[in-house]
Amino acid sequence: MGMTDKQFAGFLRQMIRTLKRALASDNVEDMKEIVSGLLEDLQQTLED
Q1: CA distance readout (Å), 46 to 5, 22, 25, 40, 41
Q2: pLDDT per residue over 12-21, tens digit each?
Q3: pLDDT class of 1 with cuts at 50, 70, 90
Q4: Where do the domains of the chain lie?
């Protein structure tokens, strides 16, 4: 099943927001946790 342009734009907004939150973190462990969660979500999306 494909995505519409609107859905893809929303997906990118979520990715950008999560990456910005990781970059804003002063704690390296928090940053790793945020990025790890993002990677898990991406992997799950590929497997669905």
Answers
A1: 18, 22, 27, 10, 9
A2: 999 999 999 9
A3: low
A4: 5-47
Within the chain, residue ranges assigned H as helices are: 5-24, 28-47
Q: How far apart are CA 4 and CA 2, in angstroms?
A: 7
Q: Is the dihedral of CA 24, 25, 28, 32 positive or negative?
A: negative
35 DSSP 8-state letter: H
**Amino acid occupying residue 14:** Q
Angle, helix 28-47 to helix 5-24, in steps of 10 degrees = 160
Please give the model's pTM, rounded to 2 decimal places: 0.80
Give the Cα separation of 35 and 19 in Å (integer): 7
